[in-house]
Amino acid sequence: MDYREVLKEYDFIQDKEKFFENLVKPKPVYFRVNTIKENKENIINALLNYEDLEIEKSEFIENYFIVKKGNISKKPEHLLGYLYIQDLASAAVVYSFSKKQNVDLVIDLCASPGGKAILLASIFPNSTIIANDIGSDRIKSLIHNVQRMGTINIIVTQCNAKFFPFITNKEIDFILADVPCSAESNLDDYYNYNINKHKNFVDYVSSLQYSILSRAVDISYPSTEIVYSTCTFNPLENEYNVDRCIKEKGIKVLPVKNLLPNFSNGILRFKELSFDDNLRYSVRIEPINMGGMFLSKILPNKKEVTPDKSLAIITKDKDHIYQVYKIKEIDPSFVYESLKFFGIPLDIISDYFWFYKDKEDKISEIFVKSNMEFLVKQKGPLTVEYFGLKALRFFKPLKIYKPTSSFLTLMNRYISDNFVELKFDVNLLKRFLSRQEIDLSSFKEQRLNGFPFVAVKYNGLVIGCAVIKNGKIISEIPSSKAQFIIQNL
């Protein structure tokens, strides 16, 4: 049997054959440029240097592009986090939140692999984003992408979303509940599909989804906006859960700005079920040249908050932070002594919160966050898995601090000194990543000032750190990261 047997039950889809045709047709690849690291124009100019790649600006969402020819996932700009491959429908979920001038705290309850949380971090760079998920593999994938994209305002947590703690001392602006689902928009094989297994899974996952949505409402404040979303079409996972939440929690469904041409309204009837009239404000994104999604923007519609047994706080108290995480703040001027060689201004460095983990007598590693807000659990099952990018490491032989490759790519737009640029040759790039010694003659531009560690550029963008040794350049990019890039080029 194939998926068309499922579609037969969806009486709200008028032309089922056309719908199925759009569903199985290969979708275009969309990506967004990562303006955290560099401005849009410079990243796009770098991509235009590839003769085997053709891209076109999306007319619907800012900073998004469509790949017309070539494989952008194999380009170093993608592997190093200057762009993120993400479907327009997924982006529309994030952009459905209202535009606010001051956004301080956002929670993504089911964040892995991180695309939506990272987009939120880019849109609201001065906020704290809590990206939560559960399971070691999902957390590993989430942290990998957070680090790759250089998003230093994200805190990664692990907690069953059904029990995510109420934050007692800081109002939450937005909560994203992009819940697990039957993923009818992204099936591996639409022509060989187990219908009975599908129905059993929908029964299970619909209950799980409602538990997560219900928890989002419970931990929200009166002004918190909640976006509930799935990448499936089944009303039992979509309108049904929102309708149930209206009846049991008294939530209010808000209109969503029409961002894409394939937006349609939420449905009000399915088989014998009738849904609240406000479900018409929900959105179904049809799978036409992109993935399909359902989303509903919600206000909790409550006048007061009720803390429960699972609690956490956001703190800036240095003593409290040290007590929980054993970290200490570092003055930006200390960090500047190493970063000044790269032309990074002190005022830029001073905008960040710098710290080290107090485990040894010496400061061996220095980390950076966009602010000094930390999440501290008081009660409940939450674990904080990651915060802060490793920025500098103490190099014992020379008794100096060298910047990490991840941090140098984050600082790409500010690096004006002490760098070299490889010639535009992918084989030369692979040699460099393999830690082969590269003669200075292989670099199209050199701007050196005597500091032994340099930033290395390729195609106009920083790719990492290297050391100068006997007139040769040797990569300092971690071997695991370098091999990942080589294998995917």
What is the topological layout?
Layout (H helix, E strand, L loop, with lengths): L3 H4 L8 H9 L4 E5 L6 H8 L6 E4 L6 E6 L6 H4 L3 E3 L2 H8 L9 E4 L6 H9 L4 E6 L2 H14 L4 E5 L7 E2 L6 E5 L16 H25 L5 E6 L8 H11 L2 E3 L8 E3 L3 E2 L2 E2 L8 E3 L7 E7 L11 E5 L2 H8 L1 E4 L1 H8 L6 H4 L3 E5 L7 E5 L4 E6 L3 E5 L1 E7 L4 E4 L1 H6 L8 E4 L3 H8 L4 E2 L3 E5 L5 E6 L2 E9 L2 E4 L3 H10 L1
Parallel strand pairs: 5-6, 5-9, 6-7, 8-17, 9-10, 25-28
Antiparallel strand pairs: 1-3, 1-4, 2-3, 7-22, 10-16, 11-16, 12-15, 13-14, 15-16, 17-21, 18-19, 19-20, 20-23, 23-24, 25-27, 26-30, 28-29, 29-30
CATH topology of the domain at 417-489, by name, is: Archaeosine Trna-guanine Transglycosylase, Chain: A, domain 4
* CATH class type of the domain at 417-489: Mainly Beta
Radius of gyration: 24 Å
Task: Just name the CATH architecture of the domain at 417-489.
Answer: Roll
Structural class: alpha+beta
pLDDT averaged residue by residue:
95
Q: Give the name of the CATH superfamily of the domain at 417-489.
A: PUA domain
Biggest sheet architecture: 10 strands, mixed
User: Percent range for helical residues?
Assistant: 25-40%
**What separation lies between the terminal Cα atoms?**
38 Å
Q: Give the amount of beta strand, in percent.
A: 25-35%
What is the approximate shape?
A: globular
DSSP summary: helix tally: 15
Number of strands: 30
Any low-confidence stretches, pLDDT <50, length ≥5? none
